[in-house]
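ok, trying the design again with the full structure, not the truncated one.
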């Protein structure tokens, strides 16, 4: 099918945010105030930090400051995969923290259980479905990747089933599939914007003071408090949780560790039962393929298909601009790949197309730290798999702010930092060379060139 025809009527906005019942923003901060804890950033990391802080100590005075509206950035633009993994997948965890992986997997599964319990306890209507996830091979070399991951998963006691081509296609029918894995319990699907809005409501119900349209312009040490300056107000806080993701941080040192990468997605019109039956998908799993440049896709509650990934675009200089959220060449490429994967769905049209920026670091999973004599703590670098991991990160932030010695804070993953990126213009050259090399590896049967092998030896490789 001509991709331009399938995209002709697609709205240029995130599907999740295009809802008539989206909540009205709460008023911005005006005037001066104080707080026990100030949370900067109203994405998942900030929302979980504020909520968990009040659940730990209901008497704590918590204020949350969001520069735009809750859920407008990555928390409302992602695919809605809520993974148990804290390491951006099993492969990345094996590469970096093999000795800690049993603990990390146990903590990750417990974290996912706690997310489910929180959603139930606070009545958050975000279409939470614990469907699991299919990891599929669409090229022969990817079968070996999945075999290694299956062996590691079984050794860790994970609920993973290996599927041959026919068994896989009985679950979801694509002529591109050669085999796969079904991680039955390690992933849930949800509506990401409704999760963010529900967490906001839960925070408000517990007494968190939330202010939207309140960007924090400056942070200073005022002696007995950290002082946050906003356009129309000021907060003096005993402790600060920094949860700004990839956006210019109040802590200058973080700029060396983070780069903004744009990810893109499409959503189809709702599939009637007859069309959905052409491809199966009775168990509604999330799906991701095993390429270096990979697609992720899933069904929404009204049986649309969200289809994203493949292009991960870094703009020279690390700029973040609203117009980067629309990239027609990528949308057309995604549409071509969609119909190659599901030729049975010829004639289906897309209703939404959008992009968003994610915070990436050199180890492809979150890192943590403190500043101002441990009165400020942060988590950043989730690299697009933060729907679930941000709750774990929020607990780490609170542990660090209170000085608690916990199983979380003892982890090497928590104590260590990723390597910083080089300054521009070397940074852009390195990123673009890596992107080109990963694409070349996919085209050459997974064979990694000298550059990728060097990154592997330095501990900077990425196993998707």
């Amino acid at each position: 099918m001509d991709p331009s025809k399938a995209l002709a009527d697609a709205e240029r906005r995130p599907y999740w945010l295009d809802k008539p019942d989206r909540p009205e923003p709460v008023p911005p901060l005006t005037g001066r105030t104080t707080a026990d804890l100030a949370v900067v950033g109203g994405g998942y990391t900030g929302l979980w930090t504020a909520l968990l802080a009040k659940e730990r100590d209901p008497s704590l005075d918590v204020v949350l400051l969001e520069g735009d509206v809750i859920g407008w950035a990555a928390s409302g633009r992602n695919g809605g995969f809520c993974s148990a993994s804290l390491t951006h997948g099993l492969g990345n965890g094996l590469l970096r923290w093999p000795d800690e992986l049993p603990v990390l997997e146990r903590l990750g599964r417990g974290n996912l259980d706690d997310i489910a319990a929180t959603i139930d306890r606070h009545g958050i209507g975000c279409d939470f479905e614990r469907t699991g996830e299919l990891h599929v091979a669409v090229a022969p070399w990817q079968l070996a990747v999945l075999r290694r991951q299956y062996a590691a998963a079984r050794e860790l006691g994970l609920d993973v089933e290996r599927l041959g081509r026919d068994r896989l296609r009985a679950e979801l029918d694509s002529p591109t599939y050669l085999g796969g894995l079904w991680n039955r319990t390690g992933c849930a699907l949800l509506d990401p914007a409704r999760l963010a809005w529900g967490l906001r409501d839960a925070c408000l119900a517990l007494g968190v003071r939330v202010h939207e349209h309140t960007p924090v312009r400056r942070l200073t040490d005022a002696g007995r408090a950290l002082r946050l300056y906003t356009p129309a107000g000021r907060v003096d806080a005993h402790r600060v949780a920094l949860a700004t993701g990839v956006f210019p941080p109040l802590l200058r040192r973080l700029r060396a560790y983070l780069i903004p990468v744009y990810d893109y997605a499409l959503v189809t019109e709702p599939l009637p039962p007859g069309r959905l039956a052409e491809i199966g998908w009775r168990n509604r799993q999330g799906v991701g393929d095993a390429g270096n440049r990979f697609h992720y896709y899933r069904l929404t509650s009204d049986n649309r298909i969200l289809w994203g990934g493949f292009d991960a675009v870094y703009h020279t200089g690390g700029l973040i601009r609203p117009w980067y959220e629309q990239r027609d060449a990528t949308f057309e490429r995604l549409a071509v790949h969609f119909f190659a994967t599901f030729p049975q769905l010829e004639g289906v049209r897309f209703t939404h197309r959008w992009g968003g920026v994610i915070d990436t670091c050199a180890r492809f999973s979150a890192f943590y730290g403190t500043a101002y004599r441990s009165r400020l703590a942060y988590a950043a670098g989730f690299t697009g798999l933060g729907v679930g991991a941000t709750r774990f990160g929020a607990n780490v932030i609170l542990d660090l702010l209170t000085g608690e010695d916990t199983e979380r804070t003892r982890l090497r993953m928590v104590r260590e930092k990723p390597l910083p990126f080089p300054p521009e213009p070397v940074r852009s050259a390195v990123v673009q060379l890596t992107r080109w090399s990963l694409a070349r590896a996919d085209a050459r049967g997974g064979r990694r060139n000298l550059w990728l092998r060097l990154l592997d030896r330095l501990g900077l490789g990425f196993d998707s």
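Keeping the full-length input from now on. The chain has a mean pLDDT of 94.
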